[in-house]
Amino acid sequence: MGILEFAAPHPPMGESEDRSVEPTISRPFPSESNLTNARPHQSRIAITHITVKDFRCFTYLQLAFDGRPVVLTGANGAGKTNFLEAVSMLGPGRGIRGARLDCLDRHGTHDSQGWAITAHVNTTHGACEISTWRKDERREIMIDGQNAKSQAVLSENLNVLWLVPSMDRLFVDRGSARRRFLDRLVFGIDAQHARRLSAYERAMRDRARLLRSGVDRADRTWLSVLESTMAGQGIAVAAARRTTISKLLRILKSDPGPFPTAEISLSGRIAAWLDDMPAVDAEARLADSLADSRWRDTETGGASEGPHRDDFSVCKDGLPAEDCSTGEQKSLLISVFLASARLLLNESGRHPVLLLDDAGAHLDRDHRTALFETLTQLGGQTWLSGTDRAHFSHFGDWAQFFDFDRGNVRRG
């Protein structure tokens, strides 16, 4: 399935001039008093064109944007989330669903080089072209026609944050989901965090494999090397998370906004060690703990100690988020999300691209309006989706609308 109507022609590959369009405003949004500060089309960071090929339900899709908020509407299953997932692949990682690369291929595609996404992006460094695609079991990336060595280069051009329905259970789900949420934020302000986390997890897998196979005298030296790597990289990972939470907490307290102020912290044994001792002592303690727990870890698998067991804790007025009502949990999540966007802007000097899939579905009208106004005042490019176009009527001409229908797209 393709598009029924192009929003604008796609420029030739490699063309770099800015084709942003100044929108005509028929009425102020969000209010007369905020009109000066609420001009989303003036954002320096914006996706101006995107081409999607053989991705999920799309055979070929080509759309253009002018920097205003982008609103995607349509029935459930129309392709809105699939499109937001394609946009999320312009950042490092596996996107909003965390799917395997081959699962992103359009059904029926059997080419070893499956899906492909190309976007033209206005950045603080000027316009650039980002391309990413699946080749066999690998993800390939190009920036302005040059092959990238790793996904980390994507964060140098574009920060992407998202809020999706599956995250509504973030506070009652397993701790791994909260750690992933936190780590995506750390990626945006600490370019080395992804490398450290990958090195830690790789050493942990290798240690578990060696323990399962049975450790003889010759293996013990290698086991010590792996545990030393886990200790060094693991404490660095925990320290980066702790620093990020401290910065995020300051933003939450200084600018609470229209949603309840979330009380956040990093909990767990490694986090507690860093509260009580220098990082170098915590590193030595983790290495000793891993050595002492070899027998237990052989029985249980994995590692009984490390930053993979810490948790991102959120409270409201001292009450743990998991004990709050569903509506309060949603508001707390939005509070943390908005503060995260402010933190990325403060730390990198770049507005993050924000993806909100059906974020207003369970909010009343006042909170939905407050969310949209806050997003607009942040100044970055925002992408929103929903089944009911009436939920977005407050935007008026301050947004671009696209209607989705089973993989086909029409400008609204």
Question: What is this structure, in a nutshell?
Answer:
The chain has 412 residues and is α/β, with parallel strands linked by helices.
Termini, distance in Å?
18 Å
What does the main sheet amount to? Answer: 6 strands, antiparallel
Report the helical percentage: 25-40%
Query: If you average the pLDDT, what whole number results?
Result: 85
Low-pLDDT regions:
1-43
Q: What share of residues are in beta strands?
A: 15-25%
Count of discrete alpha- or pi-helical segments spanning 4 or more residues: 10
Describe the protein.
This protein is an alpha/beta fold and 412 residues long. 38% of the residues lie in helices and 20% in strands. The protein has ten helices and 15 strands. The longest helix is centred in the middle third of the chain and has 38 residues, at 217-254. It is globular and about 70 Å long. The protein starts with 45 loop residues before the first strand and ends with a strand. 43% of the residues are buried. The model is unreliable at 1-43 (pLDDT under 50).
